[in-house]
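> forwarded from #structure-qc
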């Protein structure tokens, strides 16, 4: 079995990231090593009742009491081949105090313990958690929005008239805007790393400036009814990053 990471951060829609979390557990416990099978083990994992799973999903805002289960559980040593997975829902709503209380455990968990953080927004998760996890994104935003809006940001030559037309016909909502920006940040981050590895520093610098713009825009949530203006301003600033 390949070495299993101690902590994951899965970004995307809740149903998608939860299934990905289950697949991580199946990679350890499924006797057939096939996450798509319907063996008794996989069924119990999919139903959230496998002995290795501990689910943390408070109904309201996180409190330190919600995390007490983690501290109690990790005080016990596991057997050599035993694993325990903490599935932590809505990690992007966790307060700084709650996140910071987990830092030491996440960075150096006791043998056999693993953390799987689930979130819809990458930047909603504190950097201290992000830096200690393996980040995977599973965005499922609509194809129509992706094709009509985001395609303009990857074009070699900007075409504002076409962009404004597509924006008028299919403008994202405020909630969709933040998910799209988050996905776009993840995409540009991967591109930036690739450009650095290729030693294409000129393009990497442009990519870095655009990343900074996207991160700043992410924290400027559009007011109700202002999504179109938000995207127009972002489009203009994005192509000024040269």
């Amino acid at each position: 079995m390949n070495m299993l990471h101690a902590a994951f951060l899965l970004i995307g829609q809740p149903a998608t990231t939860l299934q990905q979390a289950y697949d991580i557990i199946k990679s350890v416990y499924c006797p057939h090593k096939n996450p798509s099978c319907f063996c008794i083990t996989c069924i119990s994992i999919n139903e959230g009742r496998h002995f290795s799973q501990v689910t943390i999903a408070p109904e309201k805002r996180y409190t330190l009491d919600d995390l007490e289960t983690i501290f109690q559980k990790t005080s016990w040593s596991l057997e050599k081949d035993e694993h325990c997975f903490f599935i932590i829902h809505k990690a992007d709503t966790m307060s700084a105090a709650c996140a910071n209380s987990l830092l030491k455990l996440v960075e150096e968990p006791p043998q056999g313990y693993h953390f799987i953080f689930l979130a819809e927004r990458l930047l909603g998760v504190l950097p201290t958690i992000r830096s200690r996890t393996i980040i995977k994104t599973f965005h499922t935003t609509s194809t129509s929005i992706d094709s009509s809006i985001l395609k303009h940001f990857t074009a070699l030559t900007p075409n504002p008239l076409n962009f404004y037309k597509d924006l008028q016909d299919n403008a994202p909502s405020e909630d969709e805007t933040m998910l799209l920006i988050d996905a776009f940040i993840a995409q540009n981050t991967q591109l930036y790393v690739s450009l650095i590895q290729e030693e294409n520093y000129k393009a990497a610098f442009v990519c870095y400036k655009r990343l900074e713009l996207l991160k700043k825009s992410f924290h400027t949530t559009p007011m109700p009814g202002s999504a179109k203006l938000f995207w127009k301003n972002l489009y203009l600033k994005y192509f000024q990053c040269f």
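QC bot note: The longest strand covers residues 113-119. The chain has two domains: 7-138, 143-238.
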